[in-house]
Amino acid sequence: MSAEYLWYIPNQVEPGHRGDDAVEGHNSLATLTGHAKALEEHGWGGALIGTGWSRPDTFTVATALAAQTSTFKPLIAIRPGYWRPANFASAAATLDHLTGGRVLVNIVSGQDNLAAYGDSEGDQAQRYARTREFMQLVRRLWTEERVTYEGEHFSVTDSTVTPRPVVLGERRHPRLYFGGASEAAERTAAAEADVQLFWGEPLDGVRERIERLKNLSDKLGREHAPLEFGLRITTFVRDTTEQAWADAEAKVEALAEAKKGTRRDFDRRTAVGQQRLLDLAERGDVLDDNLYTAPGRYGGGGAGTTWLVGSPEDVAKSLRKYEALGITHFVLSDTPYLEEIKRQGTQLLPLLRG
């Protein structure tokens, strides 16, 4: 299959996310629609829209942007604690129907302010067991009629979702993306996800995880199409290698200056995948050819912890190495978001598509 290239749209209450330059109206419909339309115009397939109780509602943002565009695919991050499976299956199927099959879904099980929206916090095993049931039930509701399901966490009786998701070739419903590096998360992904998303780890780490997940899929008796793999990472691109590294180092220096006098502590609940990224800095500031780990020391989190730095040719070469390992879904980004949508759409994507 051909690789998929998505971006990231920052649906944030506060402006300036990861150094973005959009301030006034940064989360207005006009601004976010401008991002989505720029993605269409510059060759991107769509964008991840993140979730969290402190953000604007992700599904509402995705619906608004889908209505303003014609090819843009929203990768809608959702949490099982926000939704009952049948409600979500119906909402997503309806949006998929209205957009001609453009919906993508990213299931998130990580920590959040659960009490604020009436959810309860179990241990890690319980959290991922619930997520696994959520994916099982949503998939059945999208593909079967008159579903009856009795699980530990969810149940429905004689349930049918209408309208149905759009069927396009082998696509029977929106893809279910999923992240997580703990043992419980990997077992959930191996059994139920369509795409396992990795953070920006070095090639050896990604290779090892792909092999483990494939073996785990076989061991668990996976019932779906083979698990696919994706990479969520910051791509720091400039016209030349030298300019890219000069600008990247200057940006990290600015992060360090802003953090001066403060100590960055991570509590015991830091996600396993995030901790793996933070530990990379102990191996060096630059891993593989151009994976920059220093940002994680000064406030980078998630996709901002490690950056692929270089010219368009440098970054394309590195991304193709991930593709050679089996990565077929890429979620890239850098700030300022709108400027980088255009720069990387013009300079990087043509090299990746070859």
Could you please describe the fold and organization of this structure?
- The chain has 354 residues and is α/β, with parallel strands linked by helices.
- 41% of the residues lie in helices and 18% in strands.
- It has 11 helices and 13 strands.
- It has helices at 29-41, 58-67, 85-99, 124-143, 183-192, 203-220, 241-259, 272-280, 312-325, 337-347, 349-353; strands at 4-9, 46-49, 73-78, 104-107, 147-150, 155-159, 176-179, 195-198, 228-237, 286-287, 291-292, 307-310, 327-333.
- The strands form 2 sheets. An 8-stranded parallel β-barrel has the order 1-2-3-4-7-8-9-13, surrounded by 6 helices.
- A hairpin with a 3-residue loop joins strand 10 (286-287) and strand 11.
- Helix 4 (124-143) runs parallel beside helix 5 (183-192) and helix 5 (183-192) crosses helix 6 (203-220).
- The longest helix has 20 residues, at 124-143.
- The radius of gyration is 20 Å and the shape is globular.
- Residues 263-268 have low confidence and may be disordered.
Task: Give structural attributes.
41% helix; two-stranded antiparallel ribbon; 8-stranded parallel β-barrel; alpha/beta; 354 residues; 18% strand; globular; 13 strands
Quick rundown:
The chain is an alpha/beta fold.
Helix content: 40-55%
Structural class designation: alpha/beta
Sketch the major β-sheet: 8 strands, parallel, barrel
The secondary-structure element order is EHEHEHEHEEEHEHEHHEEEHEHH
Query: Could you list the spans in which at least 5 consecutive residues all have pLDDT below 50?
Result: 263-268
Specify the overall morphology. Answer: globular
Write down how many β-strands occur, each being a DSSP E stretch of 2 or more residues. Answer: 13
Round the mean pLDDT to the nearest integer and report it.
93
Share in β-strands: 15-25%
Distance between the amino and carboxyl termini? 15 Å
Tally of individual helices: 11
Strand order of the largest sheet: 1-2-3-4-7-8-9-13
